[in-house]
Amino acid sequence: MNINIKQEVIDAHIIENYENELKGISIFLHEGIAQNLYAVFNHLQYLQQHIVDKDDRSTIDDMVILMKRTIEDVRVLSNDIHPFSHKGIGGALTTLLNSFSKKHNISIHYQEIGEKQRLPLLSELIVYRTFKDLLTMVTLHSPPLRIKVTSFWGEAVEIDVELTWDNQTTFQHEKFLLDILGFEKKLKLVGGAFNVTSPFDPTKVVNLLIKMNVR
């Protein structure tokens, strides 16, 4: 076996084991801790309805609000750790983009074309992690004005990402293009591809294409 191919197999195996551990943690948070917190939340609501003393009632009201927020935080954390415990690649990307848009106040348009199919779990994980790391890198360099994401489903799934800036410098653009080259290696582990298209005016639009065979 070629030494490079052997190393890729080892890398893929390590990633798969790591993701399986994350999946276990995610399920424990969602099905275990979150459910226990929800049981406490229900009891607090019961007390809230039956306590007469104003001071005690005020304390319980605060605890109900805090518990509700904590349950939501635990479920968000569970999804961030391993989004595929509860949904496929399409649902995971939708949740990620909605959260990213709210957090960074960036306009994001997401569209899916074709009938969605499940990829092998390791492939879905690497595509998702690559996509998430890409969004993080984008905001670190120079947050874009708009992001347009289109998923095409067929013999292969193609995720086309269009980034639009209005104030990116040439230096920021060139550094961004250099940094994203590292994503190609991750996708190659599962037979994927990563292509970058930059127009004549580098401060405006960059198109990225993540491609993964379905079969």
Structural description of this entry:
The protein has 215 residues and is of the alpha+beta class. A five-stranded mixed sheet has the order 1-2-3-5-4. Helix 1 packs antiparallel against helix 2 and helix 3 packs parallel to helix 4. The chain contains six helices and five strands. The longest helix has 48 residues.
> Please, how many helices?
6
What is the CATH H-level superfamily of the largest domain? Histidine kinase-like ATPase, C-terminal domain
Provide the CATH architecture of the largest domain.
2-Layer Sandwich
Rg on CA atoms, Å:
22 Å
Strand count: 5
What's the number of domains? 2
How much helix is in the residues? 55-70%
Low-confidence sequence ranges: none
CATH class value of the largest domain: Alpha Beta
SS-derived structural category:
alpha+beta
Mean pLDDT over the full residue set: 78
Biggest sheet strand line-up: 1-2-3-5-4
Percent of residues in beta strands:
15-25%
Distance between the termini: 24 Å
Task: Output the CATH topology of the largest domain.
Answer: Heat Shock Protein 90
Choose one word for the global shape.
Answer: globular
- Topology pattern, helix = H, strand = E: HHHEHEEHHEE
* Largest beta-sheet details: 5 strands, mixed
